[in-house]
Amino acid sequence: MPVVDFTKTQATAVPAVDEAKCRVCRKCLARAVCKSKAILQIDPEEPPFVDASLCYGCHACIPACPAEAIYLPSREPRPR
Known about the structure:
Structural class: little secondary structure
Radius of gyration: 12 Å
């Protein structure tokens, strides 16, 4: 597991949710792996979103999403 030093300021891309790909899982795996609790879902019928002010930038949520709906905005979402 990578070690992240949160005492230093680091510039990193904050992941985003592709709402078209999101399956609105009842038990969102990406939310479960997010240590900073940055993936929020206010309405259980709507896709979650990433709160940039809470995100550490570890990107653990990206491979955790079974729908591949979480991506880095600096890159295009992967086509299905």
